[in-house]
Write a structure and sequence with these properties.
Two copies of one chain form a homodimer. By secondary structure, chain A is of the alpha+beta class. Chain A is about 30% helix and about 30% strand. The first copy, chain A, has two domains: about 140 residues, Nucleoside Triphosphate Pyrophosphohydrolase (Alpha-Beta Complex); about 60 residues, Orthogonal Bundle (Arc Repressor Mutant, subunit A), CATH 1.10.10. The first copy, chain A, is built from six helices and ten strands; from the N terminus they run ββββαββαβααβααββ. The radius of gyration of chain A is 20 Å and the shape is elongated. The interface between A and B is large, with 36 and 36 residues. Strand 1 of chain A pairs antiparallel with strand 1 of chain B, so a sheet runs across the interface. The first copy, chain A, binds a DNA duplex (27 and 27 nucleotides) through helix 6.
DNA sequence: TCAAAAGTGTTCTCCATACACCCATGG
DNA sequence: CCATGGGTGTATGGAGAACACTTTTGA
């Protein structure tokens, strides 16, 4: 301990890139910062790492405080540690990204925080280096979507293959051939066809699917290559 | 600032997974920890983030202190923040990995630190969560090697395609077909054939290659898929 | 019966793999 | 002239891209 004492200590924060999917768009949870500096400017949801918790736990805590959700996919993005990134004080921030189902989140909690779901393609300016955090989180999302089906995290329990394709098109900003996408996904063998159909989009109706139980983090096969 | 003051501050360290390649093996720079706790146990090379530097800068500083090398490939691996990961005090550690050419490093400096190059397949136990840091660094190395030629970082200026293949075999722990590997690499168009040959391994001799100048971080083509 | 979306099938091309074969050289 | 690696060529299979085609249904 004596040896450690000659070194400085720092505030350590976590900032969460909370992503959801709605209306064929990827959306990000943001709120207008409630205190100086940059009060009123758009910010990711964040907080400080306390003494009794890991950064992972701090991120989960913030996610629960702001969306009411627990047991959510949550992963480190990167650390941000430029000495002057926060003009008020030295704060080292650990960025996380979370994938949540917008249909499940607690709207009350979001309102309390004055937070909003904002499509990532129509983003306002963000404070500090939050834009960069988002950028790296989106890269991670693409990587993850490339070898694992993100359907279960961002879509409702049941979804059609068309909905899944639209999600992937939103993630990769790229159109996929409907037939090929369908074959590729089904060939993975991780989806279970249900008897029910979604008839809201067409007369014929599209069958719902759900992710098979006991599919861990899946196989090594890539879903999309970019 | 007032608002920040209610939050705790923490020691923030960086730990470097310094990787090199020698004798057809990936090696890791380790030293026996020189102070308590766990004095004498094997440890990554690390240090504390100071007030005037980012974590990236701290990692570069440590790399220079221990190997004499600058301008080296250095990238974040992950953060480690379990409250009790260091029994002496709460230390949040940011792990980095570096790829260096063992033939260029400063042996004097390494000796000063009592450090050694240890093949990663014959590793002793490491302190704290350093084993996990190495594990994640090796995954990152494979990912990087998958879409970029790590040759320039881990091999000497000039190298034969056989040497490059052996390097990749060490990284992926997997044998590659000599002919196919050769074709794949050459098809990328990033290597320049030299007139000189390495005659130490065979009568015929193998041509040296070097990475073409002004090749940035290369193309998107994957070199190996795993 | 027709429009519109859902879903299937077919072809072509590219690329990774496996492996046979040729080349250069010193002893 | 032959053993030894270095280096090239070829056949095959599987996966992705493009796109034509069939199915289902309500109006």
């Amino acid at each position: 301990m004596e040896l450690y004492k000659i070194h400085p200590q720092h505030y350590v924060a976590v900032d969460c890139v909370i992503l959801g999917y709605q209306d064929e768009e990827i959306k990000l949870l943001l709120y207008p910062r409630s205190f100086e500096p940059y009060k009123g400017n758009w910010s990711l949801l964040g907080g400080f790492v306390q003494d009794n918790e890991s950064a992972d736990e701090a991120a989960a805590r913030i996610l629960k405080q702001t969306t009411g959700l627990e047991q959510i996919f949550l992963e480190q993005v990167a650390s941000f540690s430029e000495p002057n990134r926060d003009p008020e004080a030295r704060v080292i921030s650990l960025a996380y990204y979370a994938l949540i189902r917008i249909d499940l989140h607690d709207e009350e909690k979001v309102k309390e925080n004055g937070a909003y779901w904002i499509p990532i393609r129509k983003l306002p300016n963000l404070i500090f280096d939050h834009q960069e955090m988002l950028g790296k989180a989106l890269v991670k999302l693409q990587q993850r979507a490339g070898y694992s089906l993100c359907g279960s995290e961002l879509l409702p329990e049941m979804f059609t293959l068309i909905q899944l394709r639209k999600l992937y098109e939103a993630i990769f900003q790229h159109e996929f051939d409907p037939g090929n996408f369908r074959k590729k996904i089904l060939s993975l063998g991780v989806l279970e066809k249900l008897s029910e159909k979604d008839v809201s989009e067409s007369r014929k109706g599209a069958f719902y699917y759900k992710v098979k139980a006991n599919i861990g983090d899946m196989d090594v096969n890539r879903i999309a290559k970019f």
